[in-house]
Amino acid sequence: MSAISLVAGLGNPGNTYEPTRHNAGFWFLDALTRRLALSWRSESRFSTELADTRIQNARLRVLRPTTFMNESGTPVASIAEYFEIPAEHILVVHDDLDLPPGTVRVKRGGGHGGHNGLRDLCQTRIAGLRQTAHWCGTSRGRGSGNGLGIDPPERGGPQGYRGRKR
């Protein structure tokens, strides 16, 4: 696996969507930023919230689009382009209905599989995204000791997403 420089979580903004399965990518990011003690900052010119840190002298950026999931491609592509992050250094975290509850699957490259957020990403200008980016599918439900903290808010998962409401 290539060194990951950008972790993009997919989801929908606003309290209405917070507990839905589509926000598994956001739940993952909330758990990751808590674990790394990172703070979100708004990057309105890119329609994102962004957090960053250094791990073993390598920069890691964590991105949460403030657009709806089916419009995630442009914010992710804009950040990748601005910071010159190639596709092979991007990890996209999304919900995956084909996985049993509590399961996480990471794979390199692939299509959108009918997922509208991934479909929008695949249509962006990120060169080689479908072939070399890393997809991380997560499923709703408590994992058996996976420690990822990706449960929905009503089941003890991350609370208080601050994204743009529509």
What would you say about this model in short?
This protein has 166 residues and is an alpha/beta fold. The protein has helices at 24-35, 73-82, 116-122, 129-132, and strands at residues 6-9, 41-43, 48-55, 58-65, 90-95, 104-108, 134-138.
Explain this structure to me?
By secondary structure, the chain is an alpha/beta fold. The protein has a single domain (6-155), classed as Rossmann fold, CATH 3.40.50. Helices cover 20% and strands 23% of the residues. The chain has helices at residues 24-35, 73-82, 116-122, 129-132, and strands spanning 6-9, 41-43, 48-55, 58-65, 90-95, 104-108, 134-138. The protein has a 7-stranded mixed beta sheet with strand order 2-3-4-1-5-7-6. A hairpin with a 2-residue loop joins strand 3 (48-55) and strand 4. Helix 2 packs across helix 3 (116-122). The protein is globular and about 35 Å long.
